[in-house]
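User: Show me a protein chain along with its predicted structure.
Assistant: Here is one chain, sequence first, then structure tokens.
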Amino acid sequence: MSKEKKAAASTAAHLPEHGPIDPATGKEILLEVKHVDITFGKGDNAVRAVKDASFNIMKGETFSLVGESGSGKTTVGRAVIRVNPCAAGEILYKGVRISGDIPKSLDREVIRNIQMVFQDPAASLNERATVDYIISEGLYNFNLFENEADRVRKVETMIEEVGLLPEHLTRYPHEFSGGQRQRIGLARAMVMEPELVIADEPISALDVSIRAQVLNLLKKFQADRDVTYLFIAHDLSIVRYISDHIGVIYKGNIVEIAPTEELFDFPLHPYTHSLISAIPIPDPKLEKHKALYTYDPSIHDYSEDKPELVNIGHDHYVYGNKKEIEEYKAIREAGKVVRSITILTEEEEAEREKQRKSEEVSLTSGEYILDTPLHDTGNVWLAVLSFFLPILGLIGAFIFRKHNYIRNYKQCRKGALIGLGLIAAIVLIFGILLIISIL
């Protein structure tokens, strides 16, 4: 992007009618996430939840962000709707920067054009409000109706489109099932006629039979209204049905991005491989003998050659250092579909069971499962007790340090040192006063 365009992106007060065109595909780019870092906390307690995240979402398509719990999926989605601030990088909507400080007029347009469907349908709805008011709230805030009759018409039309009835509008959220509440949340978002909807695991809290209905609703709205989705999920089998592109995120790093079938045919990053291998097989006999591939991040050596997200061709991006990228390119150019799911023979299954039992024995013999103990919370009361009992505090700090309870160790050490310092000061003052009294 030229300097002039960058300046325009940072100072625009309103959104343009269309976004920039991707020269490679000729499609309109609706959302651009560029080298975004998201950090929570400050100083020693700072946690870098998202690291150098970059991806584009084309208008009218579904981009799915997949990863295990705590990987940073929802954090990215909340950054797009301007809830989580970006520590670095920027987010562009139709070529206009929407992250950081923006004009109030632009902020209102972003709220109007980008809506979110939340994971928990019970917690995301106001229990004190009727369904009619919940769906109408956005219409009231942005004055998106001509008169009361127009508002009622819009709300009734939307409630019917999501599969509910107009008589449901006078009821409260607690009177509905989980699937019905999620439909209400979807109606609340869609009545605003948004261009981009962030669906944050909208089906994970629902029964399996209801999931398909909600997914079909999302596809229906996309076909009828040309809605674009950022779909956040942890289940690759679900996103394969709904997605045009899939991004895989691991501990804040986006490790792979590709078109849906490209990703399933050529899962190049080991973490993607592990996610696909975890997809259940409908046949119980095959599922029983399936070999799960477990991702081990220690296989990467990034001490000198630092990794980055690289396009290896075929619109396929993979995260790795130069050596790994060359290996990924070679696999992809060979054109042979990567086998992600392996079914073991009876002999291989017996060998795996033998290995599993030997690992259990080694763990019970004294190996630590967690690098950081579960109860290493650094409770402030440890510092308080160590302040009043500094000798015991130093003993406790030594024990915590020996067993890798680093946070608890720091609290005990801090309290004990302050307590000993106070005692030393009191003794010194008392000694000086004693000497003065004698003289």
